[in-house]
Amino acid sequence: MKLLAPKPGWTARADVIVVGSGVAGLTTALQIRTFGLSVLLVTKARVDAGSTKWAQGGIAAALGPGDSPDQHEKDTLVAGAGLCDFDAVKVLVSEGPEAVRKLIARGAVFDKEATGEIALTREGGHLRNRILHAGGDATGAEVSRALLAAVRNDPDIEVVEHALVLDALKNESGAVCGVTLHVIGAGTRDGVGQAIGRAVVLATGGLGQVFAQTTNPPVSTGDGVALALRAGAQVADVEFIQFHPTVLWLGDGSKGQQPLISEAVRGEGAYLLDDAGERFMVGLHPLAELAPRDVVAIAIMRRMNETGAHHVWLDVRHIEGFTDRFPTIYASCLAHGIDPLRDLIPVAPASHYASGGARVDLNGHTSVKGLYACGETACSGVHGANRLASNSLLEGLVFSARIAADIAKNLPEFTEPIHEVDSSFLIEPQARKHLQSSMSRGAGVLRSAHSLEETEKELAIVATSTSTNPCVEAWETSNLLQLAQAIVRSALEREETRGSHWREDFPETSPQWSKRILQHLEKDGTWNSTLQEVAN
Description:
By secondary structure, the chain is of the alpha/beta class. It contains 13 helices and 27 strands. Pathway: Cofactor biosynthesis; NAD(+) biosynthesis; iminoaspartate from L-aspartate (oxidase route): step 1/1.
């Protein structure tokens, strides 16, 4: 199954095709270059327009006095609620400190204490101060800046901007040997073309635009995960969508990307209040406002449902030095008419991070030969049912290095793609709002069999909204539909509450569900689902 698209009108070649320009894609490209291989880096919009630059919190790594990878591992496993792969987590926490040092060597500058040591703070779920941050609350922007500068200084990394990846190309043996993509540009690389390589790495980021409200930028339509699905790769853990608990509430009619109020704000001592001024997290969890974000998001939604409120409040008025520590958040609040030094900040949960994605091993291999995935596009098993705060940037740093090393060791010769006659489909762009509102209503923070079945019916209606007019908006909507179908299918199958998957009709965590759900698409478009024991 493929997206309906014109035949490729041009061809580009490189040893490795990297799709995406966030921390995972940029680091993968730089690491591949250390082995002397050429890279074609394609990115959907501008090279700096992905989710990485929006990351406010920071990077978690065991770098502080008294901290250790073992302690970081324990916190990660607790947040993952029994679905983390132990080996993957061990790789993350043990190789994380060196990956951060390498990032610093590439030019990233993190905030420091007066003594000159790197400043470390806490976020929800961490029992130690281990979060590096830059510019107070602009960590992602600094990481992106440093990596982009390194990429731009390398003439053997060709960057193609405004390029939407469409589908995988395969050779006679069924291995991926490139991708088709659509470039909005001028000259020889305009319109649909093909990029041929000896390996393809998907690092396209998240899928937050599946929902009506999200912290993700507009480009986050899960294109890499959808491509992997259509290529026959397994996806896993897609039901575990992390909703960030504290997103600036802009009104009931707001859509698309919403301003994030970083978890680090609660790490610095902010309070969550309901309309009566009660700190409702106190007594609900030993860490109160610093509980893992799924616990906080569910508590907020329940309090909103109980009181009929459309949001709760975040109180930062007592935090000294707030404007210096969080200049970006402060400016964002002021831009929306809120002065955090005097006013309570209205917040509500919004979709934030996908713990699942294309299922990969410890070296980033998907189940399809020649196809790798990294970062939020991948399900490496490190996040389990719920990502621990600030482990996402670290995952991109650690596993991109492993992917590059594996590619260099096992790189095949160039092969030519065969153009099979597959069934194709396309959904009209106007169906996107229907899809997003249905997903937020029935497959959001709180779920049940009834809400999910109703969402399935709505998605079936969306699936009938077919189009014969290929364009970026139609391709994105088609990707969103396939991802929404995968999420709802897994959410219905998992009859328990675990991590960021909350079933109102199955409120307990069940030992029999200590398994991950794998899904893949057959060539004829039928879905298959299997269960996999968790490697822990």
